[in-house]
Amino acid sequence: MAAAPGGGDPFPSTYVPGETVPTAIVDATILTGTGVRIDGGTLLMRDGKVEAVMAGSAVPDGYRKVDGRGRWVTPGIIDAHSHLGIGAAPHVPSHQDVNEMTSPNTADVWAEHAVWPQDPQFRLARAAGVTSLMVLPGSANLFGGRSVTLKNIHASTVQAMKFPAAPHGLKMACGENPKTVYGGKGRGPSTRMGNIAGFRQAWIEADAYHKGWEAWEKGGKAGDPPKRDLKLETLAGVLAGGITVQNHCYRPDEMAIMIDMAREFGFRITAFHHATEAFKIVPLLVKEDICVATWAGSWGAKMESLDGIEESAPMIHAAGGCAIIHSDDGVLIQRLNQEAGVAMTAAARAGLPIAREDAIRWITANPAKAMGIADKTGTLEAGKMADVVLWSADPFSVYAHADVVWIDGAVNWDRAARNPSPASDFLLGQPGQDFIR
Amino acid sequence: MIRGILAACIVALSGQVHAETIVIEGGRVLTMGLQGEIPHGTVLISDGRIVAVGKDIAIPADARRIDATGKIVTPGLVASGTGLGLIEVRQVPATDDRGTRNELISAAFDAGFGLNPDSLLIPVARLGGITSAISVPQFRDSPGREVLFAGQAAAISLGGPAILRKRGAAMVLELGEAGAERAGGARGAALVTLRAILAEVRDYSVRRPAFDRGETAPYILSRLDMDALIPVVEGRVPLLVSVNRASDIRDVLAIAREERLKIILEGAAEGWRVAREIAAARVPVVLNPVKNVPVSFEALGATLHNAGVLARMGVTIAIQGNGPNREREMRYNAGNAAANGLGWATALAAITINPARMFGIADRVGSIEPGKDADLVIWDGDPLDTLSRPLAVFIRGEGQPMASRATELRDRYMHTIKGKDGK
After folding, report:
1. Is B57 an 8 Å CB contact of chain A?
2. Is there a contact between A435 and B273 if contact means CB atoms under 8 Å apart?
3. Is the pLDDT of residue B403 over 90?
4. B155 forms bridges with which residues in the sheet?
5. Domain interval for residue A309
6. Is residue A412 part of a domain?
7. In this structure, is residue A431 part of a structural domain?
8. Contacts of B335 in chain A (CB under 8 A)
9. Strand, coil or helix: what is A389?
10. B17: pLDDT strictly greater than 80
11. What pairs with residue B240 in β-bridges?
């Protein structure tokens, strides 16, 4: 967990995987998320873990067999940019917990303190194969606060959804949003200059705070510890390396400034989010090993997103970078697979063919990397969490349904069941509950 | 094959386009008209119009021949309920002409004025196979201003310098939560105001000279607004009513029946719950089938199955895209509806002939039939799927450039990827 001076996670995960039975998906087209495609392959799951992925359909005794003929298997879909739970449906004012819009620096707020587990959107995302997601504070502030990574299960508390041992992320935002919000309130930042000044001032304070704690710890914790400060604790967590940096940033000029600024203070940016113009600085982003979480279809609502293209993720991928397709939206999170299909198909038309076994990484292995959970999930490799989707058809097509979704080997969505997954408490007694989704 | 078709389009752009005779041969032609599907069909185009469609068509010697063997040919798609032509960048107000805060204008607002044929959004939508659109006014709420009507929608073409096809394609009204808010916070206020306005428009329509002499009692709306509403109360222009809750839909159906209005429902998240009543009233519905999130208390019953249920019960539906920048996703929305209970052919109709009929432009577009404008698309696969794309787009017989500002940006930076030559 993040190196909070207090130590440990004061809101620890209580996540418990569901019941599992040894399961074999047999004779399916398997995209492992490691760049491998196996036609007519078999996936074995046991005790919540991927046990084996192999060619052929020979299954040892003792497994529940799932017929995969004509169907596809992928790792569980992972959304690296979501506001589910904190921007819950229905979108009434009482549910608006995305932006703590009271100061440009709210590094002290944590998304998990606002997640409403009964947000009906969690189930909709589950129905679409989403097994893990990172819920981020919004982009109104320079420092929006800490993200939380969730297992997409039906639960009553956020702790019960928290992905065990996933790091927090610090949400930062470049560009139009913070300067517009605070310029509009008659205070800084009101320009991009003010944005960067606000960042740097905060990092100077964080650096001093971090060093103060380090000195106290190196000195055998003698005497009183430095006074705790929640904002600086988050930023110091970044400097110490335990907290990832998730940076909303559209334009390449701003990304380059952010990269230099991060170097000035000795931390790494984990991922640029939205990043519609990342395709203009692909070599820099590849060299810096910064993931790019973006869309295929969204562009142009504001000046800084005017240059969005469909082929951004494929271009980053083709250059050896870490490309991610994200949602930022309760409708799009239900078709990240299709959005990846759009990017893949557009790129092929542009002379940049990318195989399905590679494109699947944009919504599985790569978001897992950006979220700091790639050692646990995101690919179908022996020993990883059995977060798995069985698709009715080519997962990049509009016609593909997530037939079955396993989270840690437990069935959390079964399209063939009378009730594939529990409805949100909120929707009990409301119309439409006889539909699958 | 791709190269051949693209080359043909470039020729079309440089040549005597309107006088040209073009024949598209061998494709699976989904006419969306009485001829239905023609497996290896021929479409003959001359002077921007469709001249003939079928299997055995005499091909003039001078016709330019385009081989569509193994491809799918559809009518150009029709986007219903968009801002295309009226907006560039949403957060740059100077570029957004979708609505007005003018105190004197609500119903009178006309989306047919101020259209921008050079909009950057148009080529992007066209690359999604869209050749026509219904541009719909937006509400511009401001404190103290309570308007029920956003104004009149316009039908536009996505090709050529003169993009307006038709003014007054519909009058735009929102009821439900948004309408209630504008009327002072309650549905009852909105419905009472609406009835009062309709009565006043009928009164005004027969007493205009008296109004001019100042001999009528003051009306709620301005003269401009009432003039715009006369064709609505006379049932000549449809009222496009945004509404979602089942009970709100019932209320709207009742008002339309009593006032003898021609209406189109928009949104209709809970339409599936009252599908029989909508069908019985012969009221069509424009909807976005992927909007299954219960975003508000009036959409708690939102479901991916809405489109399928409505169609099964006999309601004519049109399917929308995802806003002006993302209209190209309209066909995927139709595909998603098809994957959730809507018949595939009905899904295609919902983005072609159905919206064309609803908004009164089916005499010109929406199907591949002789006499109509030659608006068509050649696809490399299923037009409703993410895995296929248009190979060629024709508007009034003219091959459209298969490029947009976005593809130019892409091509400018493609070379920066190692091993890519930028081609």
Report:
1. no
2. no
3. yes
4. B134, B166
5. 76-377
6. no
7. no
8. 398-399
9. strand
10. no
11. B172, B264
